[in-house]
Specification:
about 375 residues, Dihydrodipicolinate Reductase, domain 2, 2 domains, globular, 9-stranded mixed beta sheet, Rossmann fold, 7-stranded parallel beta sheet
Length: about 375
């Protein structure tokens, strides 16, 4: 039986190349790295080929805005991983994947337009027998899964709050920052309380240990959380919160004041703003760490219980790659059926957390019973 052949769009990016490396370590697959600049993906492919001589690892030039080019690239693949900043080309990528009859995974920022596009293709995805997984990676991707992991450890889980913070010295590309800023405007500060999703009234403080201390965090609604109150009938409160990112003297006093004055209607000005912010991230002081945690409150054996589960790693790119690969391993073992899925809904949470820990993500869990 031939190895599955996976093509990675954005294979030379910070996360794309980590996904490639982890896939080659963890699964018996062949890879094609694709990107707009052939020299960059070729260099990564050459480096990987030296480490994995028994695999077929190639590089091709592909623009996600070129439907014909995508169709040609996907013709020899079994699965496509979208690790590029190309949300605006979701329909082209999805249509090309459907024409080739292959699977699809993306770990791009959450996007109303992306989700709407994929949902409009849901019937065709099912009829074609394809498996499409969206909202992968960490944020989105892990919050709802972490709540599901925690729920069976309570007799009655009443509150589940997920919080995220990170500090990185490795800047994303300007293209990625433009995409992140665009999608950030779509977030709504919604939390589930009193039987309905409602606007959060204030920020909430979370203890991120000695690494970051206590930080105020703002609520951000994620689609993957929508079904949790129905699945876990005892839940009275659930929400996702995010702490301040990329905070340093340069960002506070130089980058952000300047970028606030730059017009954003022009793509050229948006790129200039993104380059300044990307450069400013390099001034971030240590500790360099990404942390996501869920705090659960409820009842066990008649006692009030507080439980906290933390995941952390020095590199946010690595955790995104590890989360993506952990999901893909479940797909490759045929544990995710055809259809359109959010990563958080597609994966087995016990295996997901076990694989993340095995790949190198630090997992800590603590329980406190109140008598």
């Amino acid at each position: 039986m031939s190895r599955p052949h996976i093509i990675i769009l954005g294979g030379s990016g910070n996360t794309g190349r980590m996904i490639a490396e982890l896939l080659l370590q963890q699964a018996d697959v062949d890879l094609t790295l694709a990107g707009r600049r052939l020299a960059k993906v070729q260099a990564v492919a050459d480096e990987l080929r030296q480490k994995h001589e028994n695999r077929q690892i190639s590089a091709i030039q592909v623009d996600a805005g070129d439907l014909a080019g995508l169709e040609k690239a996907f013709a020899r693949a079994d699965f496509v991983v979208v690790s590029s900043s190309t949300i605006e080309h979701t329909r082209f990528v999805a249509e090309a994947a459907l024409k080739a009859g292959i699977g699809y995974f993306d770990h791009q920022p959450t996007s109303r337009d992306k989700i709407a596009t994929l949902k409009s293709l849901k019937t065709r995805i099912i009829e074609a027998g394809c498996c499409f997984i969206t909202e992968g990676g960490v944020i989105p991707g892990l919050p709802a899964m972490l709540v599901r992991y925690l729920a069976p450890r309570f007799d009655r889980l009443e509150s589940a709050q997920v919080a995220f913070v990170m500090q990185d010295d490795k800047a994303p590309s300007p293209e990625t920052l433009i995409e992140l800023k665009t999608q950030w405007k779509q977030y709504q500060p919604l939390v589930f309380k009193q039987g309905t999703w409602q606007l959060a009234e204030q920020m909430v403080e979370f203890d991120f240990t000695e690494s970051f201390g206590t930080k105020p965090c703002m609520a951000c609604y994620l689609d993957e959380l929508e079904s949790l109150p129905k699945e876990i009938a005892s839940l009275r409160e659930v929400g996702f919160y995010i702490g301040a990112l990329a905070s340093n003297w340069f960002m506070r006093w130089v980058a952000r004041p300047i970028t606030s004055l730059i017009p954003t209607r022009s793509l050229g000005f948006r790129r200039l703003s993104a380059r300044l912010l990307s450069w400013g991230i390099r001034f971030n002081p240590p500790p360099y760490l990404m942390m996501i945690m869920v705090e659960g409150r409820g009842w066990c054996n008649g006692e009030s219980v507080f439980m906290r589960l933390r995941l952390s790693h020095p590199s946010s790119y690595f955790v995104t790659a590890a989360s993506s690969v952990a999901c893909l391993l479940q797909y490759l073992s045929q544990d995710i059926p055809p259809g359109l899925w959010y990563q958080a809904d597609a994966v087995d949470d016990e295996r997901m957390l076990s694989d993340l820990q095995r790949l190198g993500v630090k997992v800590e869990i603590e329980t406190v019973a109140s008598h």
